[in-house]
Specification:
616 residues; six-stranded antiparallel β-sheet; 38 strands
């Protein structure tokens, strides 16, 4: 039957919005609103329901598939935009209401409050935007220790910020700088409390800046990894803990797409082009906490399927890959920007050669891990012998929620897609992860595709020119190099961390205007650092949210290992008055014993989850 195995990458721009929006709602908004509820803030129940109603409308069969007309896809986009705007404003309001209640004896002119939505403590380098009056300043943690930072972008916005002054209390002596700059900075976070926050301060009389310096050698390195950028732009990555070098990473592969909104399908006369065929421009900069490489290609590819069939490469496809390696981390972050304004009907993928011949790939699904064959040999043999009996080629193009990995008993590589979540295991030994970045096409439906013979799945007369995505495209993903297998490497938890970065709220009196919003003084009744609860991190966090029909909170965890049975412990900082084991409908299925505000979570088997309801 028709499975439409490659529908995961139809309208890649909308698929990216879906991934980013889901991650924001589940990993950021709901835990933050729950934290606010614990501090006495009202949980905006009806607004959150409206957000999810819009998301469910976009989850309708053809809407989430993007196998519809351009007009309908515009409606899908508008719902994502509404969700993003409403959710981000809820988050902004909640961040401010908590941050401004913090009583901080070290408070200076400017504070940065970091929020951790995860159930485990967070460390590492994060990127944030803030407004500062000068380039050199000091960042201090809650204990007064100096925190290193690096400036990534620095733009003068004095007139924009200071001309919006709207001070409520004119008698208050506040700090108003002469200049204001919008800065994007990277800084080192240390032990941000789980489901909690910590407030740092900016001291204008100190200097903890560590500047980015351009390097002559084309190498990125930290305690865990060494990345060598080859002359052709590919990466050789040394995992120092296993002494394994992964060669030829992050090669981009471009080819034609003769498919439509339901199916990717290669042209009968295809032309594959790889980024390593072109000479890149490479720039490397580093500081004490961050190393960054920018690799720029001017790829020349066929303009359309007609040129591709004739082997003509006439059209520019500019591509820039930004590679970031932070201090102490085994995860590499990638940003790929493509100027796709001039090319029709094609696909772009990123290749990661694990060097591990594999029979299965491992990926996560909603509440656990799934292993799939890298190729369906018997089905492919039947397809080759009699294609007329098949409605679709039995492809091994697959999808994941947050990661796909190849590993053996000693080592592995996992890819965390943050946009299109489609992959295929390729190579003669099935040792390479091919991550789809995007694909483009021009019709809702087509007949007699290479991968799907017979009638069109959609309307073949309906053109979808917007599906060519003639615009600037940008995609993010991460690669994680680990030791041991998928279990001991804690791949599921690492993917959760990669998709749940700490939030920051900056407060300064001179910003108390339309730039954020004007609010009168509030009582300082919160500590400089606080946590609602933490887990041991054995199980993987699924959600933290308010219960639908009850006043308390829902915490859901799942087993992110293959085969292992796992338990966990939830340790609360507040006094628990009620704790229940509930199902997905949040109906009670059993009692939970509480000792010293600690709950022992029942053991979970492979791909099983547990939902806990608590009241304080």
């Amino acid at each position: 039957m028709r499975i439409h195995k490659s529908i995961f990458s139809s309208r890649s721009d909308l698929k990216q919005l879906n991934t980013e929006t889901q991650n924001y709602l589940i990993n950021t908004m709901e835990p933050l609103l729950s934290l606010g509820m614990a501090y006495g803030l009202k949980y905006p129940v009806e607004t959150v329901r409206e957000i999810w109603r819009l998301m469910f409308e976009n989850a309708a069969h053809d809407s989430i598939g993007a196998c519809v007309s351009d007009t309908t896809n515009e409606d899908v986009y508008m719902r994502y935009k509404q969700v993003r705007d409403i959710a981000s404003n809820l988050v902004e309001l909640t961040l401010r209401e908590i941050a401004t209640r913090i009583g901080n004896p070290q408070s200076k002119e400017i504070s940065l409050t970091f929020f951790n939505p995860l159930s485990t403590v967070q460390n590492g380098v994060v990127e944030v935007e803030c407004y500062v009056p000068q380039k050199e300043f000091g960042i201090l943690d809650e204990q007064g220790n100096e925190i290193a930072y690096t400036i990534l972008e620095f733009v003068d916005q004095t007139e924009y910020v200071l001309n919006q002054g709207n001070i409520l209390d004119l008698s208050k002596d506040i700090f108003i700088p002469n200049k204001v700059y919008k800065a994007k900075i990277a800084l080192q976070l240390n032990d941000v409390p789980s489901v909690g926050y910590v407030q740092y301060t900016i001291d204008l009389h100190r200097n903890t800046l560590t500047e980015l310096i351009e390097q002559k050698r084309e190498i990125l390195e930290n305690e865990a990894l060494q990345i060598t950028i080859n002359d052709n732009g590919s990466l050789d990555i040394l995992d120092k803990k296993t002494a394994t070098t992964y060669r030829n990473q992050t090669i981009l592969e471009e080819n034609g797409d003769d498919g439509h909104s339901f199916n990717y399908s290669p042209p009968r006369n295809d032309l594959k082009i790889q980024s390593i065929e072109f000479k890149p421009v490479i720039k490397v900069v580093n500081s004490a906490i961050l190393e960054v490489a920018t690799i720029t290609y001017e790829m020349i590819v066929p303009k359309d399927l007609e040129e591709r069939a004739e082997g003509i490469q006439s059209t520019r496809l500019p591509v820039t890959i930004v590679v970031k390696l932070a201090k102490g981390q085994s995860t590499i972050d990638f940003e790929v920007a493509i100027d796709n304004r001039w090319v029709d009907s094609h696909r772009l993928c990123a290749l990661f050669d694990a060097g591990i011949a594999s029979k299965v790939s491992t990926a996560d699904q909603q509440f656990g891990l799934i292993q799939r064959p890298v190729v369906r040999r018997s089905e492919m043999d039947l397809w080759q012998s009699d294609q007329e009996k098949w409605n679709e080629k039995p492809l091994s193009i697959e999808t994941c929620q947050s990661f796909v990995t190849l590993n053996d008993a000693q080592k592995g590589i996992a890819i965390f897609p943050k946009g299109v979540r489609e992959y295929e295991i390729v190579g003669e030994k099935y040792d390479t992860i091919r991550l789809t970045l995007f694909r483009t096409y021009g019709y809702m439906g087509k007949e007699n595709l290479v991968y799907r013979p017979g009638r069109a799945s959609g309307e073949s007369v309906v053109k979808t020119p917007n599906s060519q995505c003639h615009k600037q495209l940008k995609f993010s993903f991460s690669a994680y190099y680990y030791q041991g297998n998928v279990n001991s490497g804690e791949v599921a938890n690492s993917a959760k961390i990669a998709n749940t970065r700490p939030l920051v709220y900056e407060y300064a009196d001179f910003l108390n205007s339309r730039l954020i919003f004007t609010q009168s003084e509030v009582q300082k009744d919160l500590f400089v650092s606080d946590s609602l609860f933490k887990t041991n991190g054995h199980l993987t966090l699924s959600v933290i949210k308010k219960a639908e029909e009850r006043p308390g909170m829902i915490v859901r965890l799942y087993n992110g290992h293959v085969d292992d049975e796992l338990d966990d412990t939830i340790m609360f900082e507040k006094t628990i008055t009620k704790a229940k084991l509930v199902d997905l409908k949040e109906e009670t299925i059993g009692a939970l014993e509480v000792y010293s505000n600690t709950i022992k979570v029942p053991t979970q088997k492979h791909a099983k989850f547990v939902t806990v309801y608590v009241e304080f």
